[in-house]
Design goal:
single chain, 413 residues, mainly beta, four-stranded antiparallel beta sheet
Length: 413
């Protein structure tokens, strides 16, 4: 029988005090994920895409069939005709809405991490263009990645094999791999040979033999997650075990010193970068670290809808909770919560900053992790009266709620 929905403990502040509410050391630095990029956000009105600024003004009028977010170089890819295939027309604009690459010649465009050139698709092949639309490398690749810090990018030949080219599209490491990933900060790249994964250096020499069933790119500490017949663990840039493969599931560390892990896929805890338990595996629902915190939930009904949540830092210390209906934080400042079916926001002291007043996000409204978070630039997409808009950290409308869910382009996190 469905348990009766409880109200938030008389006062959220009282609930926090009851638990000690340890506001301890701030989390380690994290990668910022912003809603607006270059101060602009793609939105769709009357079936066409344009861009609004942080004041809610439509500064690039709706005119595109499809529009992507602006990159760090201040350019965005848009489609003027179609959205894919040989009949589509792709272009690139600057933050003023002016074409830096005019539509008409290319089916797709993508930044590759350089200010003076981009990747362009013509027909079914990718090449490299300069900003005067001259080919630096003629279309010849099935896929083309972004430039790594060592000046190399992944490319796939027309024959289907992967290798690495330089900024001019010249092969530096010839195509010879079944699959290949970008070079990470450790100057190692993951490659697949005969179905198994290993790693090479920038000269193309195998420094980790391809013996793993699965392998992630190396993080900024030179660690990669790997899987073999024993389980999941982490190796360093030379292939030596840092965390032995004694886990069934393990998370990503990202910029932190801790991640979630499980040895039986039933009980979850937090480990450090040596595989030592920071928090013993006693939780049934332990989430990925986002915003520097992980969310622990305990479900109170058989439908998995009603839950109590607590936020833990990477040391395993409770920062907030348990509080009925508590959700995640992305910006590390405000966490969302659900009360009487409505969404609101509280700070990490447990103080309600924006009272519960917004509707849940359709099918994902009950997900404590995926809910309606504040992005790191201080904006959140919320739902009211069936439509979506954008608010700031004070609950002021930046974009009035008049959009459908997919008409505001959010970043992934």
């Amino acid at each position: 029988m469905k348990r009766k929905v409880l109200r938030l403990l008389a006062s959220v502040g009282a609930a926090a005090c009851l638990l000690g509410l340890l506001l301890l050391a701030k989390p380690a630095p994290k990668t910022e994920i912003n809603l607006f990029s270059c101060g602009l956000l793609p939105v769709k009105e009357k079936k066409l895409w344009g861009y609004v600024n942080t004041a809610g003004e439509m500064v690039i009028p709706p005119q595109f069939q499809k529009a992507l977010r602006f990159g760090t170089a201040g350019r965005a890819v848009v489609w003027t005709t179609g959205t894919h295939g040989t009949d589509s027309q792709c272009a690139m604009i600057n933050t003023s809405g002016e074409y830096v690459i005019a539509p008409g010649k290319y089916q797709d465009l993508r930044g590759i991490g350089l200010a003076d050139r981009v990747a362009a698709m013509s027909g079914d092949s990718w090449g490299i263009l300069d900003m005067d639309m001259n080919w630096i490398a003629e279309p010849q690749f099935k896929t083309l990645g972004s430039l790594s810090e060592n000046g190399l990018m992944v490319a796939q030949s027309k024959q289907g094999q992967y290798g690495y080219v330089d900024r001019n599209g010249e092969w530096v490491i010839p195509p010879q791999y079944d699959y290949a990933l970008f070079f990470g900060e450790s100057d190692r790249a993951v490659v697949q040979v005969d179905g198994l994964y290993g790693a090479i250096n920038k000269k193309g020499k195998l420094v980790i033999d391809p013996v793993f069933e699965y392998m992630t790119p190396f993080d900024n500490r030179g660690m990669a997650e790997v899987r073999n017949e024993s389980g999941v663990g982490y190796v360093n840039r030379n292939g030596k075990w840092v965390i032995p493969p004694e886990f069934r599931e393990i998370g990503s560390f990202d910029d932190l010193d801790a991640c979630w892990a499980s040895k039986d896929m039933k009980n979850y805890g937090i480990i450090d970068r040596r595989g030592r338990w920071v928090v013993a595996p006693t939780y049934k629902n332990l989430r990925k670290f986002i915003g520097g915190y992980t969310l622990v939930t305990t479900y109170l009904d058989e439908y998995g809808n009603l839950h109590e949540g607590s936020l833990l830092n990477e040391k395993g210390q409770v920062v907030l909770g348990p509080i009925l209906g508590l959700g995640a934080t992305l910006d590390g400042e405000l966490a969302w919560f659900k009360e009487n079916g409505k969404i609101g926001y509280m700070n990490l002291k447990g103080e309600v900053v924006i009272p519960a007043q917004y509707e849940g996000h359709l099918a994902i409204s009950e997900s404590p992790t995926v809910g309606t978070v504040f992005f790191c630039d201080g904006y959140a997409v919320v739902r009211q009266d069936g439509n979506y808009g954008v608010i700031d950290r004070e609950g002021n409308w930046v974009l009035e709620p008049k959009y459908r869910y997919n008409d505001i382009l959010r970043p992934n996190y």
